[in-house]
UniProtKB/TrEMBL annotation:
It comes from the Eukaryota. It comes from Heliornis fulica. GO terms for cellular component: nucleolus. Keywords: ATP-binding, Kinase, Nucleotide-binding, Nucleus, rRNA processing, Transferase. Transmembrane segments: none annotated. This is NOL9 kinase. Its main location: nucleus. One of its GO terms (molecular function) is polynucleotide 5'-hydroxyl-kinase activity.
Length: 322
């Protein structure tokens, strides 16, 4: 597993491809592999998808279209062969016997020509015919809600099965990790070294393992200058930073035997669900990590906002149950 650290790869497509290559390199081909690609299929997203198909060389592609949407051509072997990707080039069209307005999909080589480099896979094209299938804005659950539910389920492993009530963050016992034991890197933006601890505190981090030895130049944190593509052993929350004792306080359900291999913390743009911060029960006075006395004009600051999603409209369709 590799921690990409962002909900979209639009800002760093090169690293996204590097991550895909790194993960795919560990595939032993002993069992079938199913790759669920992302939903970004317009503009550069479609070009990136072409690159990924060329990289993975699948045996089958399942393309699910939506009703009355013609923006994306069928991903036939000919289309993948001829279409340039974001970082790869398509095959130049040779001398053809016939070429009509439909483009690459109907391209056929002349007699005596055989293109051995064309990809070989079977396209399974699914095109629903019922109305409003896949209409944007009418999904049952938004991706941000699913992401929060996944994080909450992961952190649920920190709760004791013998206790009925859910313990808030400040009641859970964290691991103490010395500054010198792990390297630190913010993935999604540039942060000044003097502000790095403000960014790390109360943040969601990937617990990773890099092959390089960690060597601190001073008593401060060990900072990486580039984002590594490396194994991620799990996730955690930096519950606090002790600047006097030079310690990170980290909450994580990763077992201790795996934590011994962790030597890198990667901080991305994935946020801790707001309910974990504002819903800490049993607290008298100010809630930990939450304050209203803050200067919101500071670059990078922001308020915790509640998300209001419109209720999905219901449509009645006549069905034939015979």
């Amino acid at each position: 597993m590799v921690y990409y650290g962002q909900t979209s790869c639009e800002q760093d497509t090169e690293r996204y491809l590097d991550v895909v290559k790194y993960v795919f390199s560990s595939y032993k081909k002993e069992v079938p592999l199913v790759v669920n690609t992302m939903g970004w299929v317009k503009g550069e997203g479609l070009l990136l998808l072409v690159d990924i198909i060329r990289l993975l060389s699948p045996s089958h592609i399942v393309q699910m279209d939506v009703y009355d949407w013609k923006a994306m051509a069928p991903l036939t072997p000919q289309y993948i062969h001829l279409t340039p990707g974001l970082y790869t080039k398509g095959k130049q069209q040779g001398k053809c016997r016939q070429m009509d307005g439909s483009g690459a999909e109907d391209w056929t080589p002349s007699e005596g020509e055989e293109d051995v480099s064309a990809p070989e896979f079977k396209l399974l094209y699914v095109h629903p015919e019922f109305p409003r299938a896949g209409v944007a804005g009418e999904v049952r659950v938004h991706s941000s809600i699913l992401r929060d539910m996944s994080i909450l389920g992961y952190l649920g492993q920190l709760q004791s099965p013998d206790i009925g009530a859910v313990l808030p963050l400040h009641c859970l016992v964290p691991y103490q990790v010395p500054f010198s034991a792990v390297a630190l890197r913010v993935i999604h933006t540039d942060v000044a070294p003097t502000n790095i601890m403000y960014a790390v505190n109360a943040s969601w981090v990937g617990l990773c393992r890099i092959p390089d030895e960690i060597r601190g130049q001073s008593d401060g944190p060990v900072l990486l200058t580039q984002t590594p593509v490396c194994d991620c052993l799990g996730f955690g929350i930096v519950r606090g930073v002790d600047m006097e004792k030079k310690l990170y306080h980290i909450l994580t359900p990763v077992p201790p035997e795996k934590l011994r291999a962790v030597n890198c913390l990667l901080l991305g743009s994935i946020a801790i669900p707001n309910c974990l911060l504002v819903g800490q029960h049993g607290v008298e006075g100010e809630i930990p990590y939450v304050t209203s006395d803050y200067n919101y004009s500071i670059l990078g600051s922001g308020k915790l906002k509640k998300k209001h999603f419109k209720r999905r409209r219901e449509y009645a369709f006549e069905c034939d149950y015979t």
